[in-house]
Give the backbone structure.
Amino acid sequence: MELIYGEGYLSAGGDEEVSRIFAGIQVQNKEILDVGCGLGGTAVALAKTHNAGKVHGIDIDESVLDRARKLVERESAGNKVSLSLVEPGEFQFTENSFDIVHLTAVACHFVNLDPLFREILRVLKPGGVIVGRDWFKLVENEEFQIWDRLLRDKGLNFHFITARRFQRIIIDNGFDNVEMTDRSLDMAELAQEAVSSVDLELKEPLISVLGEDGYEECRRWTKVRARALNNGGIGQFRFIGYKPVG
């Protein structure tokens, strides 16, 4: 995925998308929790480009964390970025620990979102921000069904809901001023760019890493996702909300 999306990233947009997600949020010198930090690209960008005070990345996958640690080391970001392997469930942080909690393409893996948002609310400081981007079901059309079936055939635990339901769940778990911004058109454009890259300039590098069969599977994956985005089956929204001060 890094060949397609850039070093440190498992999804489209790279450092530029981090800037779009955090637009309008004061990041400088803030304490940030990056939930599902993956390969570490977001944590490093927040620390180096946006001058966060400290970024704590957590993930349940040791293999991606190992690669994230190497990225942090290469980028000399260890003074601002810490990474921890965690088990699903309660966060091992005290109440009111963070100014910002970020999660992108994480909530779509949860059947029950209530415990996740309750934990995020608990560890945020009063007035703190929850922000991120995630996948949502727009219309259960043929393109959505093909994409959903492809994920399930791979044994991946995606659970797509509507953006409106997602917003309601965040509000019901205690957050104020929750806003959802539709980024689906932008993400459809990025997905189409990925299709072109996989077909053209990335073909040989991907074959060298994945082999012929792996490359064809990657090519199929990118095309199915792009069709689902372009035909309105799935979408991505940026979300933001605030922990009440009182």
The two ends are 43 Å apart (CA to CA). The chain has a mean pLDDT of 92. The first helix runs from residue 2 to 5. The chain has one domain: 2-240.
